[in-house]
Predict the structure of Protein kinase domain-containing protein.
Amino acid sequence: MEVLIMTSRSWVSSDLHTLDMVHTDLKPDNIVFVDDTLTTFSGQDSHGRPTDKANRNVLQDVRIKIVDLEDTRTLIAKSTAFVGTIGYTPPEVYCGIGWGFSLDVYSFGCVMYEIQYGRRFMPDFPQVNASFAFLERAIGPFKPMLVKEIREHCDFLFTDDTKRPRVQVSRQYARLVNAEVGSFRDILRNHISNGSHAFKCLMVRCLNADSRVRPTAEDCVKHLQIQADGSLPPVDETMAE
């Protein structure tokens, strides 16, 4: 949690969004410690006896910075350029419907999942339909308005069902997607602790396929900090829709 709070603070304090700039490639590889020097921690209990944490190497400075700013884009209007790294890039980038500041928010949702649970959110699927199907089944269905926008650029992604269109995926890839969705749900179930539900709701909102539903960068910082302080207000269940 501490790493995520520092990451979100570093992201916001860089003032990228305030300056109308989008990082476009937020991922763990671009989140580094300011100083990775290690020091030996000699822990002792109240009686001066070594604890089980004695003589461990720990970071001397836990401050974090976000790097790889060469791909940062100035956002005057929504862009349709393909940016980012596959697996950390939201649907609007793949479909060409135009992306904005919430691109970084989706990427931050991927970072939240990876730092908290130790594996990438989006599996390495060989087909874009499979990636969309995973997002649909793991996070939630694509809303009709979003489906309509996507169909104008990628009409092959969804079924023809007008009432409830679903992502089209072959039987071969459907099995693979369902297996990965099962693993995703198992991971969330096995990490139940105080505040985990609130954390999950924020993460799910960041990962929403619809950029209009995602929170702002500032919202992410506030939510994580309040959760860490133990004073998180009742969770808004709509965040996980």
